[in-house]
Design brief:
The protein is of the alpha+beta class. It has three domains: 78 residues; 97 residues, HRDC domain (DNA polymerase, domain 1, Orthogonal Bundle), CATH 1.10.150.80; 64 residues. The protein contains 16 helices and five strands. Keywords: ATP-binding, Helicase, Hydrolase, Nucleotide-binding. This is Helicase.
């Protein structure tokens, strides 16, 4: 096996280096391996993170596992394993530090009170709660406890409109008790330990990469199902996703150059040829951006009772995949 990449890391305690480690990527006959070798008290333990032929999958696994280790406190001896320095500067870093500080110094009673306020406000305004205020914003409000609109505006996520609309009610909750900190919040930069902040940043990355890994795994499962000739229902069951998600994934795969035509033909077998033609003609006449106008053009403004709308929309999506493929082929040929 040829080692294509290797870097050393260490995790320090208050005395010195407590754990040394190496991360490596090797290749042999087109197969990739990722390994993590950890050395503690003179004993080395090897962990294999990945073995396979997919370069893309290998990179996803590498990023996810590495950022988990860095969130635990491991740091590269030679910089460049990650864009650490870039992560720790630039616009928005001050905002990240406020979020980090508020999560590590929580004021749970006030936070829960703010969540209760948001829930009632969202219900009365018929809005999703996150449109009123995010969890992170409520955390910051509960910790820093702004007492004027001007102070409230210093928190990331609060603009003039939000301050005007919700400021008075939020300040009613924050003015009840005394606070031990002050505005402006420039003191947070000095108060927050740099290593703790870096580990927190990597935890945020880990959560992001975990979601990406889950998406990648689902995508791979769907591709395997297509190669096996399975239908949408079987795909959704094996991948653990809804039928609509499965069809949306087919649209993405088609954009990336994968051929899904056999699956589409199987799924559309029960759809009368006349309906297929009418849908295609509707796409040509009114466009393929929105499905509802096409649905109404083909089936009328009022749907007959008992019509399975979800099924109809699914069929429209499948036909749209074919329509867009043909349109792209014509554009490329021209």
């Amino acid at each position: 096996m040829r080692v294509m990449f290797l870097n050393s890391l260490e995790k320090k305690d208050n005395v010195g280096v407590s754990v040394a480690a190496q991360v490596w990527i090797g290749e042999e006959d087109g197969s990739w391996r990722i390994g993590w070798n950890e050395i503690m008290e003179g004993e080395e333990q090897e962990y294999i993170w990945y073995e396979g032929v997919s370069w893309s999958e290998m990179l996803h696994v590498y990023r996810h596992h590495l950022v988990m280790k860095m969130s635990e406190g491991f740091r590269p001896i030679v910089e460049g394993i990650w864009d650490e320095r870039e992560e720790l500067r630039g616009r928005g870093m001050a905002a990240q530090k406020l979020v980090c500080y508020s999560e590590m110094n929580g004021n749970e009673p006030l936070y829960l009170e703010l969540c209760s306020w948001r829930r009632k406000k969202a219900s009365s305004e018929r809005k999703a709660p996150y449109l009123i205020a995010s969890n992170r914003l409520l955390r910051m409000i509960s910790v820093f406890r702004p007492q004027t609109v001007e102070e409230l505006l210093q928190l990331p996520g609060v603009g003039e409109n939000k301050a005007k609309e919700y400021g008075p009610e939020l300040l009613e909750l924050t003015l009840v008790s005394e606070r031990s900190t002050s505005f402006p919040l420039s003191w947070v930069d000095l108060e927050l330990d740099e290593e703790i902040f870096r580990s927190w940043l990597y935890k945020q990355k880990e959560a992001k990469f975990r979601v990406e890994m889950e998406k990648f795994t689902t995508r791979r499962n769907v591709l395997e199902c297509i190669n096996e000739g399975l239908g949408v229902e079987q795909i959704s069951l094996r991948a653990g996703i809804e039928r609509r998600e499965a069809v949306e994934l087919l649209e993405e795969l088609e954009k990336d150059g994968y051929n899904t035509d056999n699956l589409i033909e199987t799924e559309l077998m029960e759809m009368p040829e006349g309906e297929r033609t009418a849908v295609w003609k509707a796409y040509e006449e009114i466009g393929d951006t929105f499905l509802k106008p096409v649905l109404q053009r083909v089936y009328g403004q009022e749907m007959a009772e008992g019509v399975n709308l979800e099924k109809l929309y699914e069929q429209l999506r499948l036909i749209r995949i074919r329509y867009r493929r043909q349109r792209e082929s014509i554009r490329s040929a021209g």
